[in-house]
Amino acid sequence: MVASLPARSGPDACPGAVQVHPALDGGLARVRVPGGALTADQWRAVAEASAALGAGELELTSRGNLQVRGLAAGAEASLAERLSVAGLLPSVTHDRVRNIVASPLSGRDGRGVLDVRPLVAALDAALRADPVLAGLPGRFLFALDDGRGDVAGLGADVGLRGRTLLLAGRDSGLRVAPDEAVPALLAAAHAFLAERDGHWRLSELDDGVNRVAARLGATPPGLPAARPVSWGPIGAVSQVDGRIAVAAAVPLGRLSPAQVEVLCGAPAVVVTPWRGVVVPDLPDGSFLARLAEAGLATDPDSPWVGVTACVGSPGCARAYADVRADALDHHSGHPSHGLPVHWVGCERACGSPAGEHLRMVATVDGYVTA
User: What whole-number distance in Å separates Cα of residue 189 and Cα of residue 179?
Assistant: First the structure.
């Protein structure tokens, strides 16, 4: 089971690439990566920015984004310039609202009913072109699921599964063709803004699904919300074009500088919402061994699959424990494959995964489970 989080209202303080969070270990910047997809040049740009301006590590988020930690005061200006040159900060006004998750292997492994990669690019461009949608909360999330059901259950506010428009993970009653998908998603986002009453998420709005659906002229059929999958792809995957994709989980969602550098040798990187990476379009599967040698989890039976953590102390002033060290000590000898496990330093439970999971919560008196 997992403890529920309280409804929230008022302005949110989600960090971005420009609006940096002042953490105890320095500035924290979040780099939005729509669909999790980065070219080789973009990955190298983030890696070099983190090494030059921050701690050199990269954190992966539950939305397929990247975080740079340890920024010195004022370094956000240099970071923004580097990201802008790399095409990773195409809009300052819409920086924090470009939250788009997508099926990581869409269009490559032959599964799903449509390739959502063009929709990711189209949605991002249309979102940035709409000045009103700059007012979305930084927690608002879009999901583009190609029909396989991998990201439909991640709790996105507005999403697509195949041709079904989803609201807070639930069937809205609307079916859209691929060329209608982006306008429908944006219309739903506008409807949320009209109804939000200060709330950050559609799921936190009282009767929010029905209220937003009514504005779209739809009647939800009352089906249960899509169920989240526990973890993403692991291992080698054959692509329909004859090439290979390799996938790995990142232990506790943090890449060391050495691991970041290994991925600089990839032709492209897709960051998954399960704090993993996919390296697509390879001639063979040999790159998987390089990921394993770097300490990434390339075996589905690895004890690190499904284990995540917030930063804990000493990076966060609110944390009661060094949760990463404690998680490393615990899971090194205890494979976790029932529920996903998320370790957190306080009751705020930052970075919690979608769906059912075991939460290890640090308190002044030790850990409690939730």
Answer: 17
